[in-house]
Amino acid sequence: MTRAITATGLRKSFGDKVVLDGIDLDVEQGTTFSLLGPNGAGKTTVVRILSTLIGADGGAVRVAGHDLAREPAAVRAAIGVTGQFSAVDNLLTGEENLLLMADLQHLGRAAGQRRATELLQLFDLTESAGKMASTYSGGMRRRLDLAMTLVGDPRIIFLDEPTTGLDPRSRRTMWQTIRRLVAGGVTIFLTTQYLDEADELADRIAVLDHGKVVAVGTAAELKRGIPGGHISLQFTDTARLDAAARVLGAVTRDDDALTLQVPSDGSVLALRTLLDRLDRASVEIHGLSVHTPDLDDVFFALTAQKENVR
Ligand SMILES: Nc1ncnc2c1ncn2[C@@H]1O[C@H](COP(=O)(O)OP(=O)(O)OP(=O)(O)O)[C@@H](O)[C@H]1O
């Protein structure tokens, strides 16, 4: 697999505040990579460095095959960036915003117009193309913002919290757009605070906390890597609860709710073994639920409670 982005030992401080403390990242071409982390963990700082907006204090970075320190212009030509704050000019129409972007990228009048028309269609903005951007909803503005990023047909796109503030329907539309781009071979570097978004879109996820990558892998690998899976059993009375606790040994019990929690890897085998043991001891259960760790559990297990503002 070809690498779209590699970063090794990336470091950045603002004054005496260490924001990135030697992080490594590795993103394959044509995939979605998500950087997760609490507020202030350093996600935007990573995006700003990888997209040449600010310099790093140390480390080596290659983007689209180019050394970031030596060939920033070549990196800039290969990437698109949409930040947390919209680049849309409110005093222009949607189409004019796209044409302005095409002009800035020296696309030429005819090619620029073609690209603008194409992107307006792709982002479902054709009908509102002639309206002032100030009249657009938040979701339309986000779509226009992303369309503007795509004018130069970048192969690597940095999306810094692209769905913050969007309603559920607009988020879904943005997710579909991102999937379509990746299907077309584009690499997406996505920062988000929404765990479901990373779970839904990312091929690989890195969790950033206090300037360090504390875990990296697929969502499934991250979930397997933390404890938290358990089977919860419910009983009709304390006698049965006591009997089950004796049979099963190391359990967490909640007498008020008449439940026991048994650690489990979530496999069918673990469930069957547990039920067999209760069966053999003739202990009847009233209800049962299996809890496998989700990305929320991963996030809470891996990131510190203390806010990342130092
Ligand atoms: N230009 C700057 N000068 C000083 N400190 C900065 C600067 N930019 C970022 N920081 C600090 O660096 C840390 C990381 O900020 P960053 O914006 O990268 O975090 P983040 O993970 O993107 O957070 P959020 O999820 O809130 O956007 C924060 O403590 C922030 O205050």
Automatic annotation (TrEMBL):
Cross-referenced Pfam families = ABC_tran (PF00005)
Q: Which residues form the ABC transporter domain?
A: 5-235
Name the GO terms of the biological process aspect: carbohydrate metabolic process; daunorubicin transport; doxorubicin transport; response to antibiotic
Organism for this UniProt entry:
Actinocrispum wychmicini
Q: Which InterPro entries match?
A: AAA+_ATPase, ABC_transporter-like_ATP-bd, ABC_transporter-like_CS, ABC_transporter_ATP-binding, DrrA, Glyco_hydro_18_chit_AS, P-loop_NTPase
* Keyword annotations: Antibiotic resistance, ATP-binding, Cell membrane, Membrane, Nucleotide-binding, Translocase, Transport
* Top-level division of the source organism's lineage: Bacteria
Question: PROSITE patterns attached here?
Answer: ABC_TRANSPORTER_1, ABC_TRANSPORTER_2, GH18_1
Q: So what family is this one in?
A: Belongs to the ABC transporter superfamily. Drug exporter-1 (DrugE1) (TC 3.A.1.105) family.
Q: Which GO terms describe its cellular component?
A: plasma membrane
User: Main localisation, per the record?
Assistant: membrane
NCBIfam families in UniProt = drrA
Name used for this protein in its record: ABC-2 type transport system ATP-binding protein
